[in-house]
Records
---
Amino acid sequence: MAGKLCVPAMNVNDSVTKQKFDNLYCCRESILDGLKRTTDVMFGGKQVVVCGYGEVGKGCCAALKALGAIVYITEIDPICALQACMDGFRVVKLNEVIRQVDVVITCTGNKNVVTREHLDRMKNSCIVCNMGHSNTEIDVTSLRTPELTWERVRSQVDHVIWPDGKRVVLLAEGRLLNLSCSTVPTFVLSITATTQALALIELYNAPEGRYKQDVYLLPKKMDEYVASLHLPSFDAHLTELTDDQAKYLGLNKNGPFKPNYYR
Amino acid sequence: MAGKLCVPAMNVNDSVTKQKFDNLYCCRESILDGLKRTTDVMFGGKQVVVCGYGEVGKGCCAALKALGAIVYITEIDPICALQACMDGFRVVKLNEVIRQVDVVITCTGNKNVVTREHLDRMKNSCIVCNMGHSNTEIDVTSLRTPELTWERVRSQVDHVIWPDGKRVVLLAEGRLLNLSCSTVPTFVLSITATTQALALIELYNAPEGRYKQDVYLLPKKMDEYVASLHLPSFDAHLTELTDDQAKYLGLNKNGPFKPNYYR
Amino acid sequence: MAGKLCVPAMNVNDSVTKQKFDNLYCCRESILDGLKRTTDVMFGGKQVVVCGYGEVGKGCCAALKALGAIVYITEIDPICALQACMDGFRVVKLNEVIRQVDVVITCTGNKNVVTREHLDRMKNSCIVCNMGHSNTEIDVTSLRTPELTWERVRSQVDHVIWPDGKRVVLLAEGRLLNLSCSTVPTFVLSITATTQALALIELYNAPEGRYKQDVYLLPKKMDEYVASLHLPSFDAHLTELTDDQAKYLGLNKNGPFKPNYYR
Amino acid sequence: MAGKLCVPAMNVNDSVTKQKFDNLYCCRESILDGLKRTTDVMFGGKQVVVCGYGEVGKGCCAALKALGAIVYITEIDPICALQACMDGFRVVKLNEVIRQVDVVITCTGNKNVVTREHLDRMKNSCIVCNMGHSNTEIDVTSLRTPELTWERVRSQVDHVIWPDGKRVVLLAEGRLLNLSCSTVPTFVLSITATTQALALIELYNAPEGRYKQDVYLLPKKMDEYVASLHLPSFDAHLTELTDDQAKYLGLNKNGPFKPNYYR
């Protein structure tokens, strides 16, 4: 029946390892890679506005700041906005900076974050791209009007040209830059695939009754197991709790080491 | 009766703003401040081991790395260990680096993380301090033995001297460095106090029956309210959702903007 | 006779090790230390303008950026200004940001960089300090007028109070913050003292005629020697050129490895 | 006649803007770009050794550190080695880390920095590339022996396979990675081309006798002029000296602002 689960399901997307690797750490690298491969832009000194300071936005901003870009943030959530402040970014409304920025990046999970009005006000050669959830963050449809000319300059790169000659550089027609114009490192794929495989194994092996027709978070211990399988690549050496320490902390020596909601 | 709550309680400690500000952002500054005020140590080029890569450890490591220290991490939790790897830190067992490091910092919430055996193996002039939860992280008691001489060189700074002349520089007798040897910025106090005040107001104003004799997390919306009250200090400008966007995201335009477990 | 050297002199101030350590690396730490000890200010999210992007300015800016401050630069030299751009800082005139910043830091070697007019326009609680060459960079004299009240709030910290109640926080009466309100690490002193001692030894031992009544730069090889003496503190291991490599590079295996003007 | 200049020449290569842009700032970006385009490697957590800590090495290291790599340095010059220490890098001999690193990068200007012996000891999948001056830094010739198999896996990427199956990933056959596998931003080209054009104009316009048949450094003032022409791209606003300040500093208000040797 529509809208009703027939079997138990595991929400692997919200596991910590999946979240941090696919989002924070992977995007920190793929924003640079995607922009370089498509536009050869130099990051040093560029003014960039990043819409959204969740995990993806945090990753993009850290990388761009490190390479000498000046980054502005837009946010709707005061907690994320305050984090942006503490990390050294000005929190602005898009309109305040849209005329001056060299690059606009969306990472919101929202729609119509960059509107035709914003696009009209961008300066010549402004690069616009999306690292968020789908091709709705930038209102690309609004650019399909007769007075604007589209020119495909290379794969995944369109120049949208205004009547006065101004060009906006649109990447991947507003689809996800990290999927369209960058590659996903095998290391990240390995973490994601391991998480999915473990979830399936757990569902298959679980005694009857443990999971009902509902959506479950991956048990913390399995999340930790995924991480521990990937530590040897980094020659990382975990410390073991002594019996005495485990007792003091009220933990099992083999984990889980944190509550389920820990991020 | 012992062990039983007579009134409802609010766990303000686990609210996001409290966690991030008192831990991550505040410790990022107070580790530098505490070490400078007590020892005048230069951070550039120093080898430092930080035990524990939770919020406090992440803050300490970010600051020390930024100022040119070489930082090693010890961890028991594979997820935090993997985060340390991705942030550019070697994850080691304490014994692997204890002979070579210039500074040892504990941020674990655990006890006896630095033992007498470790202290015996440290090099001359090694600085030892605690940013974690109490004075049990470093086994200071083990240093109160006849063969070791204690010399108070200034307030909060003891030299513990081995028979061969080796000195270990112990700060605040293993108590919290950030409380003993640094100051807490008024900004952080304001966030913490606001959170506590809002929790009390909520408990006082809540209609009968909303809270029972149990411990509650601060509602997400209040956490967001605390953050929003502090944004003007940074001249930060929040973006408002349009009706259409709020509907698309399934959110109220005034928040809460994230699930309760979001960190 | 006035203005005439009677003996040879060595300009140790312009040796590389002296310049980089006393200026870039030392100031990177002492700006944080000096501000914390005097004002307990939190750096995260603060807007700071740094006047001058030479070695001292570069050090100050790197540290402040790393701790989450938003930093603006003023410069007179287009080369330094371009470097500031590439390092991710907005280059502005002081007037453009003076109303909005939380901290003003001078590192110019110039005089009257911060004038009474600037001071009049600062916002309440703005912190003003000098990391440059002397107490002339901030026009402190202009604040000694009857309508302004001075209040000493602690050692090295004055509140200058305008008739409308606005307070500017002046540190060390405009003298050098790093000397007045911070300490100089022994490591930096050691480098400076070694450089001076070697210069004296060189002058004393030099065969007659090598040095005339003039000012000389420390020979590059001695500069390198000062550095090599300090490498063991960091357990740093130098690589030696093979004979073949030395020949290829046209260098003596024992240095000097760079031309005199290399920085 | 061989070895004798027939006309005056300008050494544009050693001008500040050329040096910093082509080397430090450009390489900071192209090391990431070159490695991504050829190998899709994830930088987070990777162990990297960079041979040489001059301008190119400094740029490479800053970028890799910022993206979470653990970077080791080899150096022959104690001054550069000490700078590496202060910037937070372990200075080692190549042999100390060659078995453990994931990436080897040469930036020395020297030859045979990575020898067959080093290549024999690298671990499986180690990436080797050159950002220095020519294809002699890695002894690629030593890999053309019968027991090793070369496999071209994509353009600019060879797997060199040892009899036991170990593969070393050699990029651009040891030629310059930044030229072979990355692109040069137009901004950097503009700076270089402007410097060259100005040098030619100066030589052409100079009154007879100003330049003889020798090699000259670009006058500082022209170097500053190149920089000033590029500031508007960043919307950077220079501050002008007042007459009084220029007199105090002993400078012309229009520059040059620094001595010729300033870097």
---
Amino acid sequence: MGSRGEGAQRAVRVPEGVDPEVPQGGRKRPFGGLAARRAALLTPPHPRRAASGGRTPLAARGPRRSGLRPRLYRGRMPYFDAASAAPLHPVARQALLAALDEGWADPARLHREGRRARLLLDAAREAAAETVGCRPDELVFTPSGTHAVHSGVSGALAGRRRVGDRLVVSAVEHSSVLHAGEAHAAAGGTVTEVPVGRTGAVDPETFAAELRGPDGGAGAGAAGSGVALACLQSANHEVGTEQPVAEVAEACRAAGVPLLVDAAQSLGWGPVPGGWSLLAASAHKWGGPAGVGFLAVRKGVRFAPQGPSDERESGRAPGFENLPAVVAAAASLRAVRAEAAAEGARLRALVDRIRARVPELVPDVEVVGDPVRRLPHLVTFSCLYVDGETLLSELDREGFSVSSGSSCTSSTLTPSHVLRAMGVLSEGNVRVSLPAGTTEADVDRFLAVLPGVVSGVRDRLGTGAPVPDGGEDLVVDALGKRCPLPVIELAKVIGTVRVGGTVTVLADDEAARLDIPAWCEMRAQEYVGATPSPRGGHAYVVRRLS
Amino acid sequence: MGSRGEGAQRAVRVPEGVDPEVPQGGRKRPFGGLAARRAALLTPPHPRRAASGGRTPLAARGPRRSGLRPRLYRGRMPYFDAASAAPLHPVARQALLAALDEGWADPARLHREGRRARLLLDAAREAAAETVGCRPDELVFTPSGTHAVHSGVSGALAGRRRVGDRLVVSAVEHSSVLHAGEAHAAAGGTVTEVPVGRTGAVDPETFAAELRGPDGGAGAGAAGSGVALACLQSANHEVGTEQPVAEVAEACRAAGVPLLVDAAQSLGWGPVPGGWSLLAASAHKWGGPAGVGFLAVRKGVRFAPQGPSDERESGRAPGFENLPAVVAAAASLRAVRAEAAAEGARLRALVDRIRARVPELVPDVEVVGDPVRRLPHLVTFSCLYVDGETLLSELDREGFSVSSGSSCTSSTLTPSHVLRAMGVLSEGNVRVSLPAGTTEADVDRFLAVLPGVVSGVRDRLGTGAPVPDGGEDLVVDALGKRCPLPVIELAKVIGTVRVGGTVTVLADDEAARLDIPAWCEMRAQEYVGATPSPRGGHAYVVRRLS
């Protein structure tokens, strides 16, 4: 399967000399250009000034001079992509700065700088373990959440090689889990993806059945099923739906299968329900620095680290410890947790407002994900007849930074694997994830701006007025046309056939497979099915019901 | 083989409540305790103060209040372990702080924060590539130098699987290279270690012969030799000896074998001579932050990244980019390079002074490594009849932070693999590596303190006065005694046998294998050889010559 995760969104190529701060056609503000700042960032200052700790041109342009700072930061303009990365929490920044002074040395050394680093590392591990809910010696720091997942999956699979080679994962895991699964399959292992319902959650019973093996066998012993490891995220990164971790953990316990929980999206909001065997997380999701992940492996879980051996982090995460970042990660997790209940409730209400208002304000929208069992800060919706990349770019021009799982914003030109697994509309997809501190006014402004942005995109794509109805069955050739054009073509002509008649859309864009059925559901038309088309792609048949 | 690298020094276990800043028996300075600081580091401040950017207790204890800062930093007390990790360069600190503001977002995203991060990442890559001497699209950022080596070795071996499965490395590579070799061997591959001479350098001809294969075959084509990859460090991390990279690169070119150069220790001092195919480096060695390595792979080198796939860093380094640290790493490399010629010459003279003075000031010392073809800032020597861990601890008490390759300071209880490969004395081993800014006064004070420290350790171990000579052959039972006791026992009794008579030392400490022959060479006695002893360990036979 073509899994698509956090990192897959196509990178925009900004030509040399173009300042990404300046909206197209906008005026460049004096002194504020990134080109100048990045030149300053990478140019060594005069050695004497640097040695004396003197201010460099960059330092002189630092945080205090607000006129020279990008106007986006510190909540001045709404950044709504916290699920990708959150700005550094003030506590993380302070801890990082202090640990840069205290903790730059090698914690494996015997000298005082080394011992000081070792104490900081131990203290960070204790703090992190307490927040995660495990023993300090069960937790190691990794260079990223992705590394934590890769190491956790490969180590647990190798540790239980004798039990079997089956890996069971939900279909909506983060790409790091799915990629680890692909590597396992490429090495001869078996990977089973547990499907999800329309809200994006797995059914615990379905998951449990996979643990019992294809023949339904084994029951309490794992030997019969051959399942070495199960993986389930705590909450989905694209639609926010919480997974039934406690129930699945209980099923895993009953089947004798260890459960790895990818807690990247939720750990800042609270501990993962007990019963997990391995847990992975990523600090930059909760306002910690980049470069730090956690991998916790409960005592008693068979675990055999893969790859070259290394003395550091119990042999589970090779390489010199990124100590300042580790300290900052642990400190910021504590800090965000202290604020999580209050801030979570506040953001939950803001997201509720988005979930309720968007369908009222914008026609032909599908809000996806579980409305209740969800992350507090995240909501995803899709807009019919809209090109996701244009929508993102128009929202960006209005000052709103969001993310999308639409096919046209991914490097693979396929819709997000999460939306596909859920079977929901993918065109014009928008993920809004609010960072801590988002205000009601930010959200209101978003809701004020969105309808005009969507209708502007739709107008330009020419969804047009329907033609009078009553005609014969039609075939629409949308081969070579990219999302959302096949759906737009369908919508244009459906009114021209008689009720009971069909429109057949020929399309080779991957998103059509998801979006034409989703359109039918939204418009109460009948989706008859798809057959391979002789000229490539598929023929999607839709019957007009009303 | 029991390879031992940078990270293998045994971590000291400081009991809870003991402040590592306070020498044993010393007085604890008020307010300066690490326990208080680390508590502050990891405790979230009052949310309101944090949110408003207010100063936390930690911030209030920050860099400006010098009375509360550890007295070690900013060159106040000599830190002589720069080859393990160097304090953050001021330019790195400034770049890091700026990039924390500018570059926290996901560079794969389309919104303005993402585009800004992407531009910073691209600029850092251009700067790093320029300094390394390669094209930007040939260089990726990894989470550490160890990761760069692991990925580089596994990717190059996999890319040339059809050519063969042989990996040729020098015997004195960093542990990350040797561990990658062990993993290759465990997977069925072949690893050949090229020996080094007494200075620690490989002989280019010997290296070239290994590339031609065991049968001397193949010549220009690699098919006959089956060598998939060769690895050679630019300079040794324990003794500072520069390797003949240009000559070996030429031999590799002639044999059609790609050469991976681990440039971790030298990149801050200057570019690696051309001809390499892959290059690995580590930012915290040149005053960049932890958490960043470089891996450069020349265009045309067959390379197949191993492990789960990932969209980031050309698929060669999975996980969210550690962008602020990457920017700081590139900026500080430029900065240290700008100062490298002048600072290198200055430190080279200081090291020359240590190399010349230590043998004059301290009896029974062997200074190891090449005196000329070497890193500017690093010197290693070993002291007979001295326990390395005690020596480190006494130097630490005097304020000097150094490192050691002695067996008693390693977790494996074996001497450093580098010293073993060189065949030099390992007991009482000290590595001095000077950070930029080390003063003549620092070095003079070290030279003033060292003789007393060494003789103090020797006195406590009781090297004692020799017994009158003329007696029969002797057998000394040192089984169960740890380094340096077997050599001390030998030295005590050698004078008691007649000239031409022998002393047989029974010892099971790993270091004896290295240190008894080394002692014989230093003392102009004859090392006859070793045979396995029936009670475990070996019987080392030494003939008295004078």
---
Amino acid sequence: MRIHRLAERARTARDDLDDILDAGWVGTLSVSVDGLPQVVPVLYGRVGDAVIVHGSTGAGTLRAAAAGSPVAFCVAHLDGFVYAASLFESSANYRSAVVHGVCERLADNEAEAALAGLSEHVMPGRAAEVRANTAKERAATIVLRLPIVDGQWLAKARTGPASVLEDDDPSVWTGVLPVRTVLGTPAPTAEAAARGIRLPASIEQRLATGR
Amino acid sequence: MRIHRLAERARTARDDLDDILDAGWVGTLSVSVDGLPQVVPVLYGRVGDAVIVHGSTGAGTLRAAAAGSPVAFCVAHLDGFVYAASLFESSANYRSAVVHGVCERLADNEAEAALAGLSEHVMPGRAAEVRANTAKERAATIVLRLPIVDGQWLAKARTGPASVLEDDDPSVWTGVLPVRTVLGTPAPTAEAAARGIRLPASIEQRLATGR
């Protein structure tokens, strides 16, 4: 008999948190407004000891976060469906993290550096291939910095095989069906295709690493 | 010149919301507790006009939701990285939905039906291959039903190619790098492998559809 309850456990090492944050690009940012929860999905990137998020002031949730309203930021990765011999014992393999705190709205050099870090996470290597953002563009971008503070974050994960219990029907298949996020075939714009522009190095690198 | 600001827009048709909800298995559930946001990632399934979520009463956020605290439930799918000729014009293709409301904690037949619907979404076809849950197991499972109510949900998506502007550097590649979620090769438990148990029909079907 093999039970995997310990397969699901809190991750308390900062390295584990960093790995979970670095493994994805989309999270959800939640705030409380007038006692009610509001949430918005965001592109993000971990830059050192902070989560960097950017967006438009149009979104109420981001406006509240930019104004210093406490936030809860969540990232979750589904890694597999865990098939046990009953639905009750079945579950999912996953990695998740929640970071609590208050965002700082960045400006000028700090905003530029943070945005560079975020851009490098979401589009690695791309900054070197394109023009710099103009001052007007920088002014139009809201950049938020959510610090990662000891005691203000949680990480949890389940890994490993399915639980197998003594009285399981031995004829039932048990195991894990993995789930992965993959990159597809790059699709050029009509303009780039018409000009025969070659795939950029940054994308070739992403395809090579799968990230 | 081709600008795709309209590529990012609200989806107002209920069918669009359903498609977005049906396309994934993991969402985030946010509540406000003492004026502060709390969030937890959850496995979910849309069953008719509701989102069904289940979990353990150990999680504070789920306890609050089960007690009737208003929730904001979010699902987001990253579909691609949109490479424009500048970082400012670059973005992501995605589909997202937020459902607001109050959860109902289900019991007995309603809970069983909802859980069956959720299970069918997360592990299609599996219920027919395994034993039924026992009464004790059912009692240990908390099942929440979040109704999908007109006016209490939002859906938004960006699709399509990158924006191309008149003064773009024409030598820079523009286009979309797609992102997909895929199923991997099923990994049997040591026990199932040792017994030579064949892959179940439900998994073969999932692999065939990619879902």
